[in-house]
Amino acid sequence: SVWTKRRTTALRWRTIQTTLLRNHRSRREWKSQAAMPENGRIHPFDRASGRAISGGTANSRRGGTWIRLPPRAKTRRSILGASPLPSDSKLLVRRFFDEVLSKGNPTAAAAIVSADLVAHHPQFAEGIRGPDSLMTIVGTFRAAFPDLAYSVEELVEEGDLVAARWSATGTHRGPFLNHPATGRACSVGGMDLFRVDAGRLAETWVNSDFLGLLQQIGAIPPLQPPR
Known about the structure:
- It is a single chain.
- About 35% of the residues lie in helices and about 30% in strands.
- It contains seven helices and nine strands.
- By secondary structure, it is α+β, with helices and mostly antiparallel strands.
- The longest helix has 22 residues, at about 1-25.
- Helix 4 runs antiparallel to helix 5.
- It has a six-stranded mixed sheet with strand order 5-4-9-8-7-6. A three-stranded antiparallel sheet has the order 2-1-3, with no helix packed on it.
């Protein structure tokens, strides 16, 4: 009968209302807690279809409301505080390894490196100052290892500082530190710290396995374990 149909419809609607009240927060609650990300992610929800709305905002005319999803699980990247997209400083450091060290491009060095650059290197007591001195050192390495190539393994940024963990490979085809070419394939690793100022690399601290490189080309004998 008509009365039975109306009663059934009313019971169904009451069940839907009860479910919504139990599982979803009101729009007013969302407004009061929107600035609290630790409470979870905000996502629009369509009451009519019972599905989440992928984008845009919920509209009261279409019966929209808001639900709060569980917080995202913390990933290694979020724990470190790194943004999903690389920052300008990270891109600058990556360009330095790709275009200056790996390719020996002086034009790129002039655009990336500050004119007042100071590079603290354990093998150069006075440091390396300015892009011209830097390219002289890069040229020395590339003359001995023509296929020298750097790979950036990881970048971590904090303030105006960017730390880079890298590895490099090359074939010893030219004299290096008065040691003749051996034709050996070499690989070294290191970690550098860069200070960025006004969109350029202003200062860097270099830490690399220079001892391991000399051992690989036979310039010094490998270390023997104690007996």
